[in-house]
Amino acid sequence: MKPLFSKGPSLGVRLLVLVVMSVALMVVDSRFDLLKPVRSQMGLVLMESYWITDLPQRMWQGVAGQFGSRTELIAENEKLKTEALLLQGRLQKLAALTEQNVRLRELLNSSALVNEKVEVAELIGVDPNPFTHRILINKGERDGVFLGQPVLDARGLMGQVVELMPYTSRVLLLTDTTHSIPVQVNRNGLRAIASGTGNPERLELRHVADTADIKEGDLLVSSGMGQRFPAGYPVATVNEVIHDSGQPFAIVRAIPTAALNRSRYMLLVFSDRRTPEERATEAAIAQEEADRQGAGHTPPAATPAPAHAAQPASGNAPAAAPTTPSPAPAQPAATPAQPRRQ
């Protein structure tokens, strides 16, 4: 009967045998290529064991990396959103400055086309009443603004000053229901009255005959007939003409050329501030002076006039002082000549 625990070689002998075998394998491996296939197969087997033993650590790193990456991504996303908002704000500011520069350049170009003296004003307020179209500008009586002064932007007439304050003024726009302006069709000179409708994008022409020569696309300009707006400024463009055979007048609608709801900068036109009575008086005086000059100029033309009498007629017309006394020496020269002719 065999014993349950058989007695084998001692541990020292086993260690020695293993050491000798290891040294022999190392010598054979370094000197010969016999163990390369064995090493390759052992490396393949050991690689699987390495992957299995390293799996927990890699799983832990993956989970920690996922949570860490998500936190970092959230923080980075918030940072990028903040930077994007800041950049968008700066971009909007630059866009606003660009548009403001464009509008100021348009005003500069339009002021060069206006013969009258102009001054740039800025919009600082809008009337909150939805039934009135009035705006507030930053120029007032101290700046020389006067009642009824025309206001225009880079595209056309906007309205007129209706209320004065020391440093601000209130402007009534063309589209207000209480405002009307005499206009004429730029194509053929047809005159009409353009009235506000309360719609900032529409004007209506009152009492235009159904047979009048007006059509879509016609440009309406100020006629100057109201003694308030200078003649020749763009007012609106006709966009709709409705003819009704049963009505004596056509329905004519137009779109204002000025950007009434968008213009921030505008021009105040300092044209002729004389009243109609003053203009009529001065025109009558000028006509009388012209008549006197014409009457004094006729006799020297009929008879040989001396050199000193002909000089005032050939002089400049505005010099009224030298031309007025010229008829006095011309009349005596013609009186003694009549007896000799008889």
TrEMBL record:
Region (Disordered): 276-342
Alphabetical UniProt keywords: Cell shape
A Pfam family: MreC
UniProt xrefs under InterPro entries: Cell/Rod_1 (IPR042177), Cell/Rod_MreC_2 (IPR042175), MreC (IPR007221), MreC_beta-barrel_core (IPR055342)
Low complexity composition-biased segments: 295-323, 331-342
Residues of the signal peptide: none
Domain Rod shape-determining protein MreC beta-barrel core residues, every copy: 124-269
Highest taxon of the lineage: Bacteria
Family to which the UniProt record says this protein belongs: Belongs to the MreC family.
NCBIfam families tied to this protein: mreC
Summary of the function given for this chain in its UniProt record: Involved in formation and maintenance of cell shape.
Name the record gives this protein: Cell shape-determining protein MreC
Protein species of origin: Pseudomonas peradeniyensis
